[in-house]
Amino acid sequence: MAGSPAAAPEEHATMGVQIFSAGASACLADIVTFPLDTAKVRLQIQGESPTSSGIQYKGVLGTITTLARTEGPGKLYSGLPAGIQRQISSASLRIGLYETAQEYFASSPDQPPSLGGKILAGLMTGGVAVLIGQPTEVVKVRMQAQSHLHGLKPRYTGTYNAYRVIATKESFSTLWKGTTPNLLRSVIINCTELVTYDLMKDFFVRNKILADDVPCHLLSALIAGFSATLLSSPADVVKTRFINSPPGQYVSVPSCAMTMLTKEGPSAFFKGFVPSFLRLGSWNVIMFVCFEQLKHQLMKSRQTVDCTT
């Protein structure tokens, strides 16, 4: 029926809707995939210190089961509060502002954004998100990495204790430790993840392979997750090692990378690749599918309210 809410064309999602949808979807994805992220961190720091815990982790499932058996199932979610804070402060901006940034870099409002504009938008939103959310990343990684086995006393009793201890016993600036490798990792992931998702979704819809719906979003997100994991793995491993290191272990980020290369070989840069992909791939699928659906429902609800008023 003409004039009914169902007949009204769907509006373009506002910036507020996109930021909220991105933050909520990212939090849900983080809760579901957090054990995989913890397994990734443990595999990445394995071999860094001979006195770390004495346990050798093997594979994704092996790491998860070993952690659950030796330290308790709750250890798989150690650092989750910081992870949620990270998604709220970081993912909501890097994903939620992406379309707005594309419009800024577009040659004209009537023209679709170019590939260069998409990449620049990913670089900008990824960089801003890291600078704001880095303290949450530092705390999350340290909480995931610490072990109480073999008499090793945990450095932190909880998430908020970690913020306090790091700021007071090391320095306030330590909360931004590892910003350089995390910035590199984040812009790689953001550009690859968002641009690949955008391009694949557009390819499937334009060529009428898939409709702009859940299967299209799912497949596009999975391809984007694999691409992002492959390109970001070296920076991700260096970031984890450097953030988790005690003061003085590494002089700088390049020193950390060179130590890894000389002591463990090039394969060290791809430690934890499988859990990284399982985590980032599944995170992408959950986040993008929920993001698209939530964004659509919020705009649909808004149109319904506008029509009834």
Note the topology.
Elements: H1 15-45, H2 60-71, H3 80-96, H4 98-105, H5 115-145, H6 159-170, H7 179-206, H8 214-244, H9 253-264, H10 273-308
Helix pairs in contact: 1-2, 1-3, 1-10, 3-5, 4-5, 5-6, 5-7, 7-8, 8-9, 8-10
Please explain how this structure is put together.
With 309 residues, the protein is mainly α. The protein contains 10 helices and no strands.
Helix content: over 70%
Average pLDDT figure: 86
Number of strands: 0
Major sheet, described briefly?
none
Which series of helices and strands comes N to C? HHHHHHHHHH
**Class by SSE composition:** mainly alpha
In summary, what is this structure?
The protein is mostly helical. It is 71% helix and 0% strand.
Key features?
single chain; 309 residues; mainly alpha; 10 helices; 0% strand; globular; disordered N terminus
